[in-house]
Model the fold of this input.
Amino acid sequence: MESTWERIDENKVKLTIEVDEDRVEDSLDKAYKKVVKKVELPGFRKGKVPRKILENRFGPEVLYEDALEILVPEAYQEAIEENEIEPVAQPEIDVEQMEKGEVLKFTATVDVKPEPKLGEYKGLEVEKEKIEISEQQVEDELKRLQEQHAEYEQIEDGEAENGDRLVIDFKGYVDGEPLEGGEAENHNIEIGSDQFIPGFEEQLIGTKPGEEKEVNVTFPEEYPQEQISGKDAVFNVKVKEIKKKNLLSIDDELAKDVSDFESLDELKQDISNRLEQEAKEKGEQQVEEQVVSKAVENAEVNIPEPMIDQELDTMLKEFEQNLSYQGLDLNTYYKMANTDEDSLKEQFKDSAKNRVKRNLVLEAIRDEEGITASEEEVEEEIKKIAESANQDPEQIKEFLELQGKVSQVEDQIATKKAVDLLIDNAVVTEVEKQDTEENEAE
Done:
């Protein structure tokens, strides 16, 4: 077999492939064995018509289609490997010659992986926040623990207040008609949690056990179900139970109840240490995101549409999986959000482009710097995968080899090393941490 290629566009090549007569004949023979099973001719049992008689009766062309289905994929795969072509889509095949006793000639035009033009990726200037754990942060965490371990006591008399938990029955109406999905019994709700429609919880303040109340609300304009967004609704509510929140005092007893520590001071120190570690990890993440983002931004690459389409398909599957964790599927989501697959993919498109460019640029940096994964690093990573899955490393390795996924592990390791190179060569400046209120104002 002979093959040559030429670039006909920045990210598109055309392969010209010739397959010798012997392989053509072999593929015709395989095609005959497939086709003859369906052929019936007078004087022959079904599937027993000799090839010569079959070709004389129907013409040799009767075998060409099946022969091409056998031979073209094989020859194409050999050609891209021989010429080190990395296709990113299915090829467009054009058969120029297919005749018995002759060579097979065909061309394959295909989109290929682009080669980014790297910009500056070393010495990138980035910022990270200084690690400063304040007393207020520790106090806030203590209050969170206090709330998390609060106890609730049911009352027979008295009124509901902010922070109380209620058990209610409710039924909603829009324009006088029952609201689909707007009815429940023995529903738990905490006043002030903002988990219900805006304005709903506040109107339950002052109610008593056994009381019935009409609650009037307006659905937000951005509510997912477009048919009721922005509309007024009335809910008939019956308060069945009221439970008062009892908070533990922030003292040594709290420390004993919520941790393994004997004193509040020990708990505070542990909280401070944990917040410091979280801040350190956050700072490292900030640096990583910035250096990768700048390296990607500094590079130039024209991404073929098929690569974006493939990434969109991946993102859609990820989105579908996340929905499944919430007990939803795509069709249900489309109805709730009044959208469809095309619209959702359009929303994802910019992110898909960024993800593809990021992968291409990091791969180009790996190639530029000669970064690879060693056998020892792959073995170590497989051990980590096995530990997290509580499996035997050898079984995981065998599975990855059978699935042809060891190369994915190698890629992940090499990419991580490329990111580490960007970080190690970055110029990092520590800046004062901004208050949450200032960030929100900006």
In short: Residues 437-442 have pLDDT under 50 and may be disordered. The first helix runs from residue 21 to 35.
